[in-house]
Structure formats: structure tokens, C-alpha cells
Amino acid sequence: MQVHRFEKVWLGAAILLIVGFIATIAYGSVGVGVGMVDDSGGQISAQEVQNGNTGTHFDDPGVVKTGDDKYTVYVVARQFQFVPGSGDNPVQVPAGANVTFRVTSADVVHGFSVVETNINTMVIPGQVSEVSARFNEPGTYGLICHEYCGAAHHTMGGSVEVVPPEEYDMQQENIDQSADDAQAQEEADQ
Amino acid sequence: MALSRRQFVGAAAGTAALAATGTATAQEEPDYGGWFDDVSNYDGTADKRGQDTVTITVGAQGNNGAFAFDPPAVMVSPGTEVVWEWSGEGGGHNVVSDGDGPLDSGSPVSEAGTTYSHTFESEGMFKYVCVPHKSLGMKGAVVVRPGGSGDGGSGGQQQQGPPENPDYGGWFDDVSNYDGTTVDRTDADSVEISVGAQGNNGAFAFDPPAVRVTPGTEVTWTWTGEGGGHNVVSDGDGPLDSGGAVSEAGTTYSHTFEEMGVYKYACVPHKSLGMKGAVVVGGPLGGSGGGSGGGSEQEGSGIELSGPQWLLSGSILLAFFSPLLFAVAMRRRQNGRPPQTGEGGELQRATGPEPVEEAAETEPAVELGHDEYDPKGTAALVAFYFVLIGLLWVFMYFVEFLGRVSIIG
């Protein structure tokens, strides 16, 4: 078979391109450390999530500080809202910290996509989807459900607010303070 | 005996029940300003004036799921305590005033049996929503207006019941054996409806699908035994429930309707096929005497097309026959051409058209071997594509993808 030398050149270039694609993806996962969503989140009873008696943080979902600059956000997705996330209850996390989202569904399959980031996972009832990320810059990100979940799927959304760490700590102190105050008040009443 | 009972129940139920719980058709309907436009289960304001407590179900059937308040619109007297009771269906719901208002049950909860109550002291209209499901039409209103408790009972006007041609709200759109008429059986003490009658592409129909009876009439559903297992269950909240689907011929289920209203029901397994029906209890004007009802103007059969539909079907027909028309036009052109004249014209035409002389093949000027020709233009194009793909890849992966916040584990 005769192959023209020009053809040889562009066949070789095509193979090189494919090798280049694979190499960049390998670099992304090994060099940069881009992770994949897997089943590491574990399983949970969707019924218990619905009833709020799982005995985990999903009963009162929100942000939990798990260590120095380590936070876990528990989110329950249900028709048609994220708790927290939707409405006037946005997810608030500090910038620069390692934030792990643990998301589960109380009813049907939902999606959990933080807009303009690569944080994007399916939320399956009975399964906890776990993804970690680090937001370096403060800002507000949209949060949408991108798996059709029912008649008002198009309205299911929310927001993730990334605040500067100092501000975040101050807010937490205020909350703790007010809780302490309330407790002190109660004790004083007694 | 039965007749007297019927008349008695009809009169008693008509006055007492309607005054207390019936839809306030006769009185002035409050102006909600389009609030209920997208609320599927809104069917007038329920007049519950004169009661101390009024219960509203949260998560009732409606708005394509369990996303409704039932009743959505309710009229109460000042000082009435309104209790919202959660059905536990349709996910987490709450009760929050639209705009500034007194109602706020907090964040959505889904647990059945949850209640929230508010006592309305001042007159006015209080609109409220379930925040997560507002866009689905989960909206309601409480109208606080004095009166109604005493004078409603004696009002003879309210005995009318549903109008002559009840508005089923599209309920019968996909029911093949519903011909637009509600069968008037207001003269009968007991009415029989067959379950599994022919219709909806099989034995998936109620016959008659829509029937009008007087209050106190016993309606009996009789199974034909065809079309598999059927049951009779009210649409949404309602009194009818024959239990699980059965297929045995001769099975019966009966219910005596005491209160006026429109009772929609369906066979749960075959609802999507159009196995739906409705019982209209009470009315129209004049009660049982008026046997003239039945929508005589709906008798027009056959296909009726409006202007745009004519245009559409006409153009489709035209498009369908256009090849034929084209062929006819060609034939006419061919025939219209004057016959060719020439030497021995008749003879030539019999042997076919004149042969055309072919162009002679020319010798190639230069012959080239396989490797001697370089397609430089093609090579340039391919190179350009490679550069383009490389640039797009770099931009997409290193800028768009890695430049964003990524999952790190």
C-alpha cells in the first residue's frame, strides 16, 4: 500500500493529538488533583432523611466545622429545594477552606451543581454524594438542580456564599454568642 | 317510600349542608385579582362562616401532585381559628402570607399531622402560599367577612346545585365515550353505572360517564367483567373508594350522594386511558322537575374546522398532491408543444430521438505518479484544523476547566 508522505504526516499528528488529550487528563487528576465523584459518601435511608431521624447531621442540615480550615456542609435536596441553599437560607462557607459537601435526597433523584464551578453531582435517594472543594475567592455562586425531579424542577435552586474567613469566624462567634446569651438568660430566669 | 326519603334528604341536605359547607355560588365571589389563575383545585370560595374553627389541608391533591391547599379559598367570620393540617404528601410545605401578612408557619415540613393555626380577628383578604411550591400553584386565601351564618340557611336560591352544563375543567378531555352531555337521571331513585363499558380503545369506560342525580340518590357501579381490574375512586379528596381493582363481573359498589356538588372519579389503573367519570348531584334550576337539561346544543357531530385549521389542512392536502399537479402541468406543456417537423419526421419519431455525437476523449497533457503530486492546499487546511483543535483543547481544559473551582476529592 502506498501512503503519501503528507498523509503520513497528518496521521502521525492525529495520534500525537490523542496522546496529548490523554496526557492532559492524566495531568489534571495526578498533577492538579481534580477528583471524581464516587460512592465514598456511603448509604443512608431516604425515608429516615425524609422523617429527620437519621441520627446524623442530615436531621438538621447545615455547615459543620470538622477541623482547622475543614468544613462539612450537609445538604438535603427535596422537591423542590435545597436545605440549606434555597430561598433566604444560602449555604455559607469561608474562602480558602477545604469544604466537603455531603448531599442526599429525601425523595427523588436530584442534581447538585454549583454554577461556574466543576462541583457537579447526582443526588440519589439512599446515597450520600460527597464532593470536596476549595473556594479561594469570596463570592456568590448559584446552586441548581440539574436532574429532572418533578413539575417544579425548573424552580429548584439556591446559592452558595463564599465569605472571607475573618468575616465567617465573626458571624459564627456572633451566633455562638447569641446562643450562649440565650442560655445564660434561661439560667438567670431559673 | 324511597321518593319521600329522597325529597326529604334533598331538601334537608340542600339547605343545611350547602349553607354550611357548599360552594358559595350564589353569593358575591371575592375578587382575588388573578391569584387563583394557576391553582388547579380552585373552584370557588368555600363559605365556612359561622364556624369556630375551619381546617385546611396542606398537601392535598392538586396542581399535578400533592401541591395544593384544600379548600384553597375559604370565607370565615371574624374571630375564626383557621387550622392548617399537613397531609404528609408532596414533600415539605409551609404556610406563609403573600407579602406582608400574619401567616408564617416557618420552614417547610413534610410530616403528616403537623398543624399550624391562626385566628383571624379583622376583616380582609389574607393570601398565602407554600414557599417551595408557590410556582406550582400551591396558593390559598382566607377571606374574613362577617355574616353568612344565619341568613345562608333560609336562602332558597342556594339550592340550585351545579349549573346545567357543569364545568368539569377538562376532566373529560380524554374520555372517548363522553359526548358532551351529562345524562339526566334526576328522576330516578337509584342510578346504575357500568364499569368496564366499551370506550377508550377497549373496555375502559364508565357508562354513562357523566350523570346528574338528586341529593339522596343511591348510585351503583356494576362491573361488566371486561377490560381487567377496575375500581371507582374519587379524584382528590372525595367520598368514593371501592378499594383495590377487581375484574369479576357482577361486582357492585354503591354510594348515596347527600350533598350537592360535582363528584369526579376514576378507575385508578386505567385513569390515563381516560376511564373517568363524574356524578353531578343536585340542580339545575328547578331540581328534579326539570328533565329538559342535557345540553341539546352539543349534538353537532362531525368535524368542524376553524379558519386557521382549514388553511393548515388545505396546504397539507395541496402538498400531498403537488407531485400529481406537477405531472399534469408537465404533460400539458408536452402536449402543447408543436410537433417536430423535419425530413421524414414520422419515421424519426418512431425510432427515438436523434443520437447526440459524443465528445472525443482527449489525451492527458502530463501524467503524474502517486508521490509526485503534493496536495499543498489540503495539507494547509489540515494543519489549520490541527492548530484550531489544539488551541480549543488548551483553552477548554486549562482555562475553562482547571481555572474553576474543582472537586478535590
Task: Walk me through the structure.
- The complex is a heterodimer of chains A (190) and B (409).
- With 190 residues, chain A is of the alpha+beta class.
- Chain A folds into 2 domains: 1-34; 39-177, Cupredoxins -  blue copper proteins (Immunoglobulin-like, Sandwich), CATH 2.60.40.
- Chain A contains 3 helices and 10 strands.
- In chain A, strands 1, 2, 3, 5 and 8 form a 5-stranded mixed β-sheet that branches. A 5-stranded mixed β-sheet of chain A has the order 4-10-9-6-7, with helices on one face.
- In chain A, a hairpin with a 2-residue loop joins strand 2 and strand 3 (81-83).
- By secondary structure, chain B is an alpha/beta fold.
- Among the domains of chain B are: 1-26 and 155-288, Sandwich (Immunoglobulin-like); 34-153, Cupredoxins -  blue copper proteins (Immunoglobulin-like, Sandwich), CATH 2.60.40.420.
- Chain B has helices at residues 2-21, 151-154, 307-336, 345-350, 376-401, and strands spanning 46-47, 53-60, 68-70, 73-76, 80-86, 96-97, 115-120, 124-129, 139-144, 183-184, 190-197, 205-207, 210-213, 217-223, 233-234, 252-257, 261-266, 276-281.
- In chain B, a hairpin with a 7-residue loop joins strand 11 and strand 12 (205-207).
- The relative contact order of chain B is 0.10.
- Chain A binds chain B through residues 2, 4-6, 9-10, 13-14, 17, 20-21, 24-25, 28, 32-37, 50-52, 78-81, 83, 86-87, 89, 98, 106-107, 114, 116-119, 131-136, 150-152, 155, and chain B through 63-65, 67, 90-92, 107-108, 110-111, 131-133, 135-136, 370-371, 374-375, 378-379, 382-383, 386, 389-390, 393, 397-398, 401-402, 404-409.
- Chain B: Keywords: Copper, Electron transport, Membrane, Metal-binding, Periplasm, Transmembrane, Transmembrane helix, Transport.
- Chain B: Pfam families: Copper-bind.
- Chain B: InterPro entries: Amicyanin/Pseudoazurin, BlueCu_1, BlueCu_1_BS, Cupredoxin, Halocyanin, TAT_signal.
